[in-house]
Amino acid sequence: MRTEDFLALAGRLFLALIFLASAFGKITNFDATLKYMEAHGMPMTPLFCAGAIALEALGGVTLILGYLTRWGAAALIGFLVAATWIFHTAPDQRIALLKNLAIIGGLLQVMAYGPGALSLDGGDKPR
Q1: Residues 4, 116: contact at Cβ < 8 Å?
Q2: Dihedral angle of Cα 51, 98, 81, 113, to the nearest 10 degrees
């Protein structure tokens, strides 16, 4: 194994961690999450909250396993773009906005270069 393979795995694990922690936080604080979403004008908050939990959890698992990694990364990018637009465009949310942009950058790297050899995808190359 090459050093790059271990770095790709570590990068995927670190990216996954924030999504899994966020999904867990939404599950354990579901009512507070609904109120936060409602305060930002989200319609059908239970449906969108459940969808966010599913996307974050499943996307995080794809990153950890390195299985369907590019699809998982693409789904997480879509989620982050929407979440950033809705919740993090106010001036007091600048750091959250920049954090999300950095995470999108990491996910774009996963999409561009694949998950690495230490993955169930087997280190597939970009097409």
Answers
A1: yes
A2: -100
